[in-house]
UniProtKB/TrEMBL annotation, chain A:
<dbReference type="Pfam" id="PF17931">
    <property type="entry name" value="TetR_C_23"/>
</dbReference>
<protein>
    <submittedName>
        <fullName>TetR/AcrR family transcriptional regulator</fullName>
    </submittedName>
</protein>
<feature type="domain" description="Tetracyclin repressor-like C-terminal">
    <location>
        <begin position="78"/>
        <end position="206"/>
    </location>
</feature>
<dbReference type="InterPro" id="IPR036271">
    <property type="entry name" value="Tet_transcr_reg_TetR-rel_C_sf"/>
</dbReference>
<dbReference type="InterPro" id="IPR041673">
    <property type="entry name" value="TetR_C_23"/>
</dbReference>
TrEMBL record, chain B:
<dbReference type="InterPro" id="IPR051409">
    <property type="entry name" value="Atypical_kinase_ADCK"/>
</dbReference>
<feature type="domain" description="ABC1 atypical kinase-like">
    <location>
        <begin position="96"/>
        <end position="334"/>
    </location>
</feature>
<dbReference type="InterPro" id="IPR004147">
    <property type="entry name" value="ABC1_dom"/>
</dbReference>
<keyword id="KW-0808">Transferase</keyword>
<keyword id="KW-0547">Nucleotide-binding</keyword>
<dbReference type="Pfam" id="PF03109">
    <property type="entry name" value="ABC1"/>
</dbReference>
<keyword id="KW-0418">Kinase</keyword>
<dbReference type="InterPro" id="IPR034646">
    <property type="entry name" value="ADCK3_dom"/>
</dbReference>
<dbReference type="GO" id="GO:0016301">
    <property type="term" value="F:kinase activity"/>
</dbReference>
Amino acid sequence: MEKEAIKLAYLDYVLRKGQPPVSVYKLMHKLGATEAEFYQHYSTFAAIDREIWADFGRQARARAAEEPVWEQYGAREKLLGFYYTLLEILKQNRSYALWSLRYSLSKMPGMTPRILDDFRQGFEQFVADILRDGRRTEEVASRPMIQEKYPRAFWQQMLFVLGFFAKDDSLGFERTDAAIEKAVTLSFDLVGRNTLDSAVDFVRFLVQSR
Amino acid sequence: MSEPTKPLVSLPTTKVARAARFAKTGLNVGANYVKHYAKRAVGAESATADLHQANAEELYGALSEMKGSVLKVAQMLAMEKNILPTAYAEQFAQAQYQTPPLSGPLIVKAFRDAFGKSPFELFDTFELNARQAASIGQVHFAEKDGKALAVKVQYPGVADSIRSDLRMVKPVALRVLGLDEATMRPYLEEVETRLLEETDYQLELRRGQEIAAQCGHIPHLCFATYYPTLSAARILTMDWLPGQHLKEFLATNPTQTVRNQLGQALWDFYAYQMHTLRQVHADPHPGNFLLDATDGGTLGVLDFGCVKNIPADFYQLFFALLDPAVLADDARLTDLLTQLEVLRPDDAPTLRDLYLRTLRISLELVARPFHQPVFNFGDPAYMQAVYALGDDLMQEPELRKQREPRGSRHFIYVNRTYVGLYALLAELGAEVRTA
């Protein structure tokens, strides 16, 4: 039994029934396989959800990077490119995305849903990478201590975008595009060298010269 | 084209964001007035020109950030230099050239939405940095099968937001210009219709093809071929025409013969549309033409977004007004102006006389090129007389009291066409066979 086949069967079930199968046995029985084969690949259905989301992220990163101009993009544009590509993928899987988000969001409001754990790890790694590149080109200000927290902050932005997309009812989800453009602009205004750095620098000067 | 502009860092697209932007403008304009009167109250010199300048800057600052429909309104106001105080006109004129482009990933996304492909798959080469900013979109350079192409990309959400934009620009614009909403309604509706048409790139493609086919016989004109398979609702692909915009072209010091030939092509193009097609490219601002010195002067026509159909009855009345015999005949002039809704039967006799007098002077001036076989638009005295007339009319106390606009709604775009055409020909300094 292929891992991919189990994933697809699960996805198909969820999309048609709007809920996960009652038991692993039932799903595997339909596939004409034993329950044990399931556990070779996944421990629970939630593990499949996590993997599907992680796949969305992986696909979005890979597909965005296929763009011939990718290498010429700055950090801000790379993040924008990722978001827009992710949105394309989510648009094709909107029903599943909405269902899985709602299914898990309602349990723990304000927290990162467990099913996004693997997706989050990939995302934070990606953000850390582009921010490091951004520091080299001075697009992103170097702020030791604080900058380690950046990926977490960008994850909150990702959650905001997902939440916005889930509620967006505009044609072609154009408002989500605008939300992304704005959110990313704001975040890069914040991580770039700005008034705050000058203020910190000034205060440090005053303290040191006393 | 213009020097590379900074990519657009913020695009206020949501209605709330736009409304906030406008509220801010209204506030600042208000604040400028307060400053003005406060200064006056304490006896300091605060020239009204300063006030206009300050207001115009506030408005322009807001407008260039708003893009879209508002920018179009700005452009239209700028065309009518003789109506607006000079300071506004100068600030608005900037809007015709410079607005910052969108970020690269959003362009790529627009192509994916429309074609399911990135621009780099669709074309052999594609420049992600816009060569030019248009008012509701931006123009990119691309190549396919050895052909240089211009690809116009519309800002996402523009079509949806025009109506609400206009609802918000109205109160600000009306207050700044001191106009009343109810009487302005038919005119604003006319503008709104044209603006909405402009967001429809499929319509523009059709019209561009039509007009190019019908005007192809006019010498020294050059039209771009459109590519329907590479175009969509928000993307328009056409040939990249050679040539420069007016300002840059004039900087190359073209000879008078070249200028005349270009001016003649421009005049013939408009005369044919006006008199034969009765459908006219109503956006003659410098950004929509490319001038080239090859073949003694070739004129490239861009952007068929704004096309005005001229109804037969309006056409007849309008061109009857330009007849010198009519200008000499009070009764006929009154009759024509009444039909065109400029004069009203219930006007007081003194007011009617005032209108008749001022209109006769303006019509004589505006129709002058039509009354001569050859007209030199390069004569600075003529354009000065036109602008001076505008200033004089602004000073006329009785006319200033008349707050409501008059005349058929079709005047807006026909006037805009001629004002733009005259301004272009004047800047070109061309001598044109007009009869």
